[in-house]
Queue: 2 jobs
Job 1
Amino acid sequence: MGSRRSDVDSELDKAQSSHPERQILIVDDDAEFCETLVDVLRLCSYDSVVAQTGLEACHLAQEAEAPDVALVDVRLAMAARGTLGLLSELQQVRPGILCIMMTAQPTAETAIEALKQGAYDYLNKPFNMGDLFIILERAFGKVKLEREKASVEEALKAQKAELEDFSVRLRGVIDSATRLAACAHLAEVKSLILREFAGNLGATGGSLYLRQNGSLTLACALDPGHAPQMVPFPPAHDSLFERTIRMRKPLLIRDITQEAAVHPSGWKGYTNGSALLFPLVDHEGQISGIVSLHNHPQTPFTNQDRDLGAILASHSSETLRAAQATENLRRSEERFRAIFETAEDAIFIKALDGRYAQVNPGMQHLVNRAPEQLIGRTDLEVFDPELGQHAAQTDAQVAAGETVEEEFVSDLDGS
């Protein structure tokens, strides 16, 4: 008996030390029994609600904060149809509720039937409180596990949906990178970069600034008219541009009004306070520009927007570097062509086999030959053998890396 009492005390201590928010639905029409049971359960930190009819029990089970465990008198459960109909009704209105059946007239048949119909356990009245608390501990342990399982499943479901959404959006970013790679003209690249950012990240406003002559110059804008044409470099301390440059990584602002150190521009066209900024870098890793986005039409920008934008920013930087290199090469070629065509000195370009590839007007005048008499021919084919041989030797010296200075004087007849 002493050992049994010790077991009871142990279970009472365990119940008293565990979750006080756990609630039990007691379904029994014996008011005195219910009152005593409520008092005992309260001492062990269980909250209880009492229903003295099956209808009242179903109403209580439908409430938002309804109990997860019920102690149900078998006789009351059978009152309506002569079966354990109340058990299935409670499970229908409160899916997952664990019903522990109680009876003062225990029979094996009733216990078996209750368990078949989904009862969690079975107690005989008058029951030992230690047995009750053991069953309650198990029941609430099961409830906890089921909640944790549901929470994990919900989290996995949300994570799966997020990954699927990210995968779809990532394919969009890859398509954007392909379009950027196919664009070679700098003016078109600038506009395309901003459009691709806006399309992938859902922005309706934004601008692209490029670093030029010691400042950030507005290259293009989705909503022109309010963005300044030029921003000093480095920008004002703790401004969004300055923070982006200082951190050298994307900057996500969910609500600019909550940023104590940053003051909104005051422009009335913003739909919310969310913003996303991305640094662009050159081949030396220095800041070459900034993409600034705002006006997400539905919700503030998200971490996923930031991560996708970072990938696009990397591709944009590469495309911008290639387009700028191409543009610089084109300008160099234009400058060379202007010098080539207007210089009074003779200038010519030869292929590695010694044949003339291009000759300027100065060269044509010096040797008194038309372009078609020079292009595609060697010196031996153009000049007399002595001069042709000398020119061929000079070509060999130049091909070997030597610098050769000679003065060539043409006779009036061009010989």
Note: The two ends are 135 Å apart (CA to CA).
Job 2
Amino acid sequence: MKFEKVFEPTYFQHFSCNGQECQDTCCAGWDIVIDAATLRQYTSCKDPNLKTLFSKNLDCNRDPGNSIQGYMKLEQQRCPFLTQEHLCLIQQRLGEDALSLTCSTYPRTFNQVDGVLERSLCVSCIQAAQLILLNKEPMQFIKKDELTTLRSRAVGTIHSSSQIALKPYAYFAPIREFVIELLQNRDYLLWQRLSLLSVFCSRLAQVQEEYYDEDIPYLLSYFRDKIQHDDFRQAMNVFETDLETQLQVVTALLNYRMQGEFLGERFQECMHDFMQGIGLKDYTIDIEAVEAYVLAKEQYYVPFLKSHEYLLENYLVNSAFQKLFPLGPQENGITDPIEIYEEYIILTLHYAILQTLLIGMAGFHKESFNLNQAVNLIQTYEKTIGHNLSFRIQAIKFIKTLQMDTTGGMSVLIKI
């Protein structure tokens, strides 16, 4: 696929992999998918050592119509081609062009919107996380002319002239512009911005297709005017602060994920600190745990947040841009489309879980809790949970079962 225009956050051009020096590895815990061209190269390899490894470690898909033609079999959740020096044996022997699509692109992600290539980075990479999260200024974006070729066609795609899935894709650009503008509006606390976003997404989802041209421009103008004049603030002040429910819901979701496969060592260390920080021995919430959670929030997390709220703002903005929020892609070959408000639920749930984990970790580290620990948590969380597709499905179902899929219900999870 060839593109002439690129749209990306300005941080993208500053990324470079530090290879062997990285504390993490890209080659652990992932599904490493193999496309048809890469599979042909691997199965016809003449290198005797690599040929034996390919024969042993490739799990081939026999469906010729599937863009994914195989997977790399992992050994204890690690790629069998990863050397002791944390380098790729395939790249060493055959060169970078022989890498699978997964390995050649990560941590870069790609979408196409009306023929423009959109590029960003995954927070699950340590180098990318530092680049994305640690910028104190609001994230900026740039559109430029640049001839670019992608090997893969399996990218998130939006054609604004198409109304697939009965969503207002013709208005995707102004809707996303408003969303990012709102997420970066520092006149409001982050939980308030997310609450306002909840109301907007709920209203947007209710607009019927025959009224898109009339209602959506009005909706955008209405919300901008109300936010500018502070008309929503009084209504948000009545939202309940319920830290016990917040803690119960988040720990239930964490417990679900901790029963699954691949829990990176660094994420498990963060979980240890979180549980120790509020005195949890298992995932049962008692009065002592709630009291410790409240204490950790007030004494250690809130002072930290006052100076570093930009961390989670950058996380949310990057996610919104990367996921084509709130409409999602019309097609991407990986995930099924979900509803507008479900897109909001999963974005906000990730924020809520991260905030709860940060509070517990702050309770554990107390005055020594710092930026490096926060960034480490966000990066390992994204790798362990953010990329987990089954977690996304189950988390949405769980919130709906609890009947918390409303602005009031979601505010319980984020207001501290």
Note: The chain has a mean pLDDT of 90.
